[in-house]
Amino acid sequence: MPDIVQIKELRKSYKGGFQALKGINLSIRRGEILALLGPNGAGKTTLISTICGITTATSGSVTVDGHDIVNNYRAARSIIGLVPQEINLEPFERVINTVRFSRGLFGKPSDDAAIEKVLRQLSLWDKKDNQVRELSGGMKRRVLIAKALAHDPRVLFLDEPTAGVDVELRKDMWDIVAKLKADGVTIILTTHYIEEAEAIADRVGVIANGELMLVEDKDTLMARMGQKQLDVLLTDPITEIPAALRSDALELSEDGTTLIYTYDTRSERTGITKLLADVAAAGLVLRDVQTRQSSLEDIFVGLVKEDAA
């Protein structure tokens, strides 16, 4: 089955020469959750806005389910749902009318059963007659998602959907996204909460300075670039690493109580056995040994640092 979104050599430049997007190439698989990570100003929102027709590209092309976003804008846009970063809702309108209006914008016939399904899915049905201004920030965020789903899109863009949402509501959002995926919706998520990408994404893309640095299956990325860290806790603090133990892979904690050894999980030999023998030979007494796997956040920070160097 062909990819549902195809992006080829997409560029966006502004007056003055600033390049927000620098030749983005990306294929988004049908039914996947793709997390786009990147620092502020990396180009994430510009990319989404361009695909959704809010921003006009300088050059390049995008197709959504085979429809070009410029030459066949209506067909392409009808397939897309967008949950923007900013909450911009009519405060005095009732929730149910807000969602109905969004459905009508796409030329969809009135369908109260469909609206009810969306509102129930987002735990908004009991708030349907409330004015938007009466809702909490988290509930307003849910209304944004309901508006985006009102016309039954097959591709859903979530631009920082949990910004300003408390931890409990954020977890609810993850559950909603998982249910949408189960219904066959393709989801593209931008987030500053890297644990979200680690928890729910199938693939991860990293954007920095308008360039797509990589797109890879999450598990493959973490296996390929992840490292493990062994913390050797000492009974008595030391002021420096003994000469016999010094290596690029070994560091001493600031308080002198822990030797920190970093090793590649893919290596045939980790070097741990030799390290522990050398520690004992140096007369150091172990109190405990702990290991830690690199998280997606560690990998992301490392990639962005490399790009900035």
From TrEMBL:
Signal peptide: none annotated. PROSITE patterns: ABC_TRANSPORTER_1, ABC_TRANSPORTER_2. Pfam families: ABC_tran. InterPro entries: AAA+_ATPase, ABC_transporter-like_ATP-bd, ABC_transporter-like_CS, ABC_transporter_ATP-binding, P-loop_NTPase. SMART domains: AAA (SM00382). CDD domains: ABC_DR_subfamily_A. The keyword Nucleotide-binding applies. One of its GO terms (molecular function) is ATP hydrolysis activity. Residues 5-234 form the ABC transporter domain. Keywords: ATP-binding, Nucleotide-binding, Transport. PANTHER family: ABC TRANSPORTER ATP-BINDING PROTEIN. This is Multidrug ABC transporter ATP-binding protein. It comes from Sulfitobacter mediterraneus.
